[in-house]
Amino acid sequence: MSTDDGFDYDVVVVGGGPAGLTSALYTTRLSLDTLVIDRGGGRAAMMRETHNVIGITEETSGNELLQTAREQVQGYGADFERGLVESVTPLGDSADDGFRVETGDASYHACRVVLATGFADERPDPPLPPTGRGLHYCLLCDAYMFVDEPVYVMGAGDAAARVAMIMLNYTDAVDLLTRGEDPSWSDETATMLEHHPVDVVTAEIAAMNKSDDGWLESFEFADGQVRAYSGGFLMYGSDYHDEVVEGLDLERTEDGAVAVDDYGRTSVDGVYAVGDLTPGYSQIPIAMGEGANAGITIHKELRAFPRSLEELETDGPVTDADVPALSAALAATAVEHEGHAHSPTEPADE
Fold first, then answer.
1. Distance CA 71, CA 69 (A)
2. Whether residue 295 is found in the same domain as residue 223
3. Could you tell me the pLDDT band of residue 347, with boundaries at 50, 70 and 90?
4. Among 30, 88, 133, 246, which one has the highest count of C-beta atoms within 10 angstroms of its own C-beta?
């Protein structure tokens, strides 16, 4: 299967976050013509600093991380398009028939599709501090920032209550802010809360105070109290970017994630899903691993050689004219790339 068989691309990746870009990195470097279509934004782009990614230091923003990744993937020969994928349609009963990927402006025929569209966190009404300056979504990423600091957890469900109790591992000053909403946590969670030193603040937030550098300093509440915080976490759930998922009628888990196997395969043969769209921890290194897994698996499915005994019987032996089995464009890019075996390490003499 290749672009020589009438496909526009071997692989179309829908979504340009860490998971999707890593899939594209692997498929491109493993000689598959790849297109990334990205609508922009996303959770990674919101990050003011990058945490928990080994080798990437704190001062790297999410936008800087993604920009570097896009340039890297394009440097290996992948194409990148800013746009919104409206639909992905199977073109036959077999994955080898490919898929039609439609945007508002273009249509592509692809051998395989990787969905990496993620989700968006739900937010309550303002006042709220700036994201990354007192407002955070990921305890695994940001709890370290608030060791021995006063923090809040905002929400009225089981997840919010449990995160508030978890934060006691890092600080002894934790408030659970329900903002006037009736708690919906379970009786079991209520009993646990009673036996943990978490202050439940039920009043609505009336105002917010910030420092000169934009960080949250305190919330003022409708009952008149003012409580200081260095930051905290929103726990209001999330909405999957699942328009394409619904169109393909992919199997979902109970919480709405796309069900996948260990290699990112979905219930539709030839369609993969990676990153926040799938079950598991929402962490960049995990998303990258899922993207790599999917990319390698797609390579194994689509690579031309070795031909199996059945293929040799049908198609005959591999000839000199059959190899190498990558497009001329990818081959030319690889030969010119600085990572190529014969790329000059110093400027040539003139």
1. 5
2. no
3. low
4. 88
Say yes or no: 214 and 307 in one domain.
no
User: What is the average pLDDT across 330-343?
Assistant: 90
Q: Where are the alpha helices (DSSP H) in the chain?
A: 18-29, 62-75, 139-142, 158-166, 187-194, 243-248, 284-302, 309-315, 328-336
Picking from 99, 98, 87, 111, the residue whose alpha carbon sits closest to that of residue 34 is 111
Same domain, residue pair 267 and 294: yes
| Each residue's pLDDT tens digit, 222-233 | 999 999 999 999
DSSP labels for 145-182? GGTTS-EEEE-SSHHHHHHHHHGGGT-S-EEEE-TTPP
- Answer yes or no: is pLDDT of 4 > 70: no
Is 76 within the bounds of a domain? yes
Does the residue 344 lie in any domain? no
Q: Would you give the distance in Å from CA 163 to the centre of its chain?
A: 22
Q: Is the peptide bond before 324 cis (omega within 30 degrees of 0)?
A: yes
Residue count of the chain: 350
Q: Could you list the residue range(s) of the whole structural domain that residue 251 is in? A: 3-120+239-336
263, 120 Cβ separation under 8 angstroms: no
Two structure tokens written together for 294: 């999917």
Strand 107-115 vs strand 9-14: parallel, antiparallel, or unpaired?
A: parallel
What's the CATH number where 61 sits? Answer: 3.50.50.60
Q: Does a structural domain hold residue 130?
A: no
43 and 172 inside one domain? no
Binning pLDDT at 50, 70 and 90, where does residue 121 land?
confident
Total domains, the chain: 2
Asked whether residue 113 is domain-assigned, the answer is yes
